[in-house]
Structure prediction request, 67 residues.
Amino acid sequence: MDAMRGMMEKLKLTVNDDKTPLCQIPQKRFDFLGYTFERCYSQKTGRAYIGTRPSPRSVKRMVENII
Prediction:
């Protein structure tokens, strides 16, 4: 948490402790800026990596805008 605070201070951003949960990657996933960060597996090698995809909320909003 301290390392993250240091990075955010360099970017002149503040951290809201009430809204900022700690999660263990890769056991848990989290949403940030419209993306879900989670463990994914390579289709070629089968190796695990931390990947992103659009969050369900973002997808829902996009579909609503299209319709």
Observations:
- Residues 24 and 52 are 16 Å apart (CA to CA).
- The helical segments are 2-10, 56-66.
- The chain has two helices and three strands.
